[in-house]
């Protein structure tokens, strides 16, 4: 049995939101079928002009994260505006009563205020730090240890990540928490007051993945390994014409195939014997990676990028040529992928926009373009923009 | 109204799984109240000994990601083992019929095979590349463009991320997709066949965040900015005793406070006038960041880390001292955070383990330790390990 209704159809979510995590949560819920209304102050929130922008100054960022949502603006400092938002949340039918926000600490839209109007309300507040004080991806990341293990080995300076990974994870946890709370409410009638600090998102994942367990159990934390994958065999190699490949040998078969491909079987066997190592074991491959890297690198250095790419295609070894964003687009990766569909975004133009990465029964759920700011603001305040 | 039942209680999920994304999805669903049974081949999957490990070789990694799950082992190449797993998925009551796996392509546990036994089954297969061929976080990341914009400006080599951010996002999308599919099944009775490639996870997020839209609309992609935050004012500064702080001024108020704190108001105003810039605008702060960084850096360089930390605490500026993982633990961050609770993990010892970062009605959902591999394998195959 399959079902062509999207899994979260019938839900109405009000998002009082800005920046990355909270709008990403709203977009993701929208892709899954929920109706999402983003509420902004008149003129837009702090992220309305955020870079990247087009040559004309239109925000690619804002439109990318707010696709498929209604856009309502209101004077959030006025009682009329606050009351309109309260009604948007609480009057929106059986699938409504859901508030997603990163604007915590406003008593007029606190959980208690809204629950007095609608007892089964679900609210999710995204916070910065654990203690509720402000924090953003870049500050949370600095405090946690990842910049110190990122970048070339031997470099003294910490290296920030380019992808705001904690914002992304926080937005996805938020969407999940709302989806799970809805499932419970539909069974029991109970609402939920959910809080989700960005710092806790980062701490939880760093804990679960072991980074914060090592200092507790082994007495010291991870140190950087540059572009080498920690704990197994993986690194990057450069070709004769300056191409670069990331190579990973996770399993004994991957490693054997890599050794065969690069013709270093005898040398690897001799090294294994001399060092008492067994390269079928990933810990031995990791421990002796400098030697292995040195044995394997000349094969790449002696061949063109095209030759290397062709040879790797017939191997089990996990590999990928490093590409820039421009190359990804120029290579036709987006146009070949059914997850991307063309949107015609007012102010931006036509481009291939991404749907949900999870395909349900073969379908990648897409959304339309972003509405222009305030396009769905009710003219008579009590009405809903639907 | 609140509800102390966890939001996904009553669900039974079978996870045939390894590495990061899929086990993280299972752990997260377990934290939300689902009963999760991880199935492994006898002796464990490829990740059973994965680093980090203790001095005795026990995997901190495996135990961290498999907390709160039952552990069943079976000979997955035998008909008896396969049949046992099929029954685990399909016989597990109204909340069962859910399979989460990263082991795609096995016809005995394909969606069609299981749907023939239980029409409302929900299956989620995590794949590597979009086309179904293998790929891992490190190869997906290399192909997408982020390593080329990570690391110090001017460095020729791409810099891999240390956090496997795509695995994390993929695991969270997987948990969300299952939660949403369950919500639909409980309303309509329909199952779902969900596929989720790691590569599509990365492409979708890179698209949504604008990185893949810029080449399409502006004709060229993002270039690296080192530790400077793109599009606004944020960078790192070094103190007299070698401490380092990440500083972000997202709003005009943040920036004004930073300028006041560091006593460079006159110089900043003179520069603004000379350059025709308005530093209340984040694009102007970003464009002229090298000048602003240069004006502000001496204040940090002239003060000790303790002095800087004290001064920043009284400011609205977003700031964080860079810390290592060891410092996070030594600073008592975990013990002060109710999301962390002590687990006594056989083979590993006692440590503070992270619960779900989203708190429901003030409660951080925790799980118990990981079971030892195969501890819940049914002695008589038809039985369930509950």
From TrEMBL, chains A, B:
Residues 367-386 are annotated as: Disordered. The keyword Isomerase applies. Pfam families: CoA_transf_3 (PF02515). Keywords: Isomerase. The keyword Isomerase applies. It comes from the Bacteria. GO terms for molecular function: isomerase activity. This is 2-methylfumaryl-CoA isomerase. It comes from Gordonia mangrovi.
